[in-house]
Amino acid sequence: MATFELLKTTEHSIRLGRMTILRNHERKILNTPNCLACTARGSVPHLTPDSLREIPVEALEITLEQFLDVQPPPSSLFPNGAHKFFNLEEYLLFFDVRDPGELKKIPFNTDKFASVITSQGIRKITPDDYVKYVNSYNPEMFASLSDTITAESPSPKRIKKSVNRTLTWLDHALANIKEGIHVFGAVVGHDNHEERVRSAQETANRKVAGFVLNGHDLGNTSKERLDILKTSINHLPKDKIRIAYGIEKPADILRGILEGIDVFDASYPSKMTSAGKAFVFSLNNDKWDTDTGCSQHINLLEGQYRTDYQPFIQTCKCYACRNHTRAYVHHLLNAREMLANVLLMSHNLYHYSQFFKKIRESMEQDTFLQFAEQFLQRYGEEEYKNDHEVTLENAEFSINQNKTEHNSSF
Question: Cis omega (within 30 of 0) on the bond before 72?
Answer without folding.
Answer: yes
